[in-house]
Amino acid sequence: MSESELERANGMLARYRTASWMAGPALGGALASVSAASVLGLAALLALGGAIAAATLPAIPPAREPASDTRGGLRLLLSQPALRTLTTAWLIVRIGFAVELTAAVPLGHEEGPKHSASGC
Questions:
Q1: Helical packing angle, 70-79 and 81-107, nearest 10°
Q2: Which of 25, 48, 59, 67 could connect to 73 by a Cys-Cys bridge, CB 3.0–4.6 Å?
């Protein structure tokens, strides 16, 4: 596969992924509010759309230097500045989500109504 074909394939992959991230939740919410049967229709529609998108994407060539072990993967990660930056940023986001979810349990806990000894 030539360099231009690889760029085209990566561009198509990014385009489909971005479109699904943007349109998927909106379509799901809109159809779920209509009826439960529409949720099944949405699932079938999305599966069909995914199959069509997968059929239109060109085959991805094998990696030039496969990193089949953990050390190879870390070497690849550390050798690519853009990949290293994106991975670090995503790690920070995920740690933030973990902190938020951990704090949400005790902070979101509401106690029931207080009852006096007389039952009132």
A1: 110
A2: 67
Residue 58 is classified by DSSP as P
Q: Which residue has the tokens 């439960």?
A: 36
Q: Residues 41-90: pLDDT tens digits? A: 777 888 898 888 888 877 777 666 555 677 777 888 889 888 889 889 99
Q: Give the integer Cα–Cα distance in Å for 26 and 55.
A: 24
Domain ranges of the chain: 1-61, 67-108
Angle subtended by helix axes 3-34 and 36-56, to nearest 10: 170
Which of 12, 15, 22 is CA-nearest to residue 57?
A: 12
Per-residue burial over 94-107, b if 16 or more Cβ lie within 10 Å, else e, is: eeeeeeeeeeeeee
pTM over 0.85: no
Contact 18, 24 (CB under 8 A): no
Q: What share of the chain is helix, strand, coil (3-state, %, to 5)?
A: 75, 0, 25
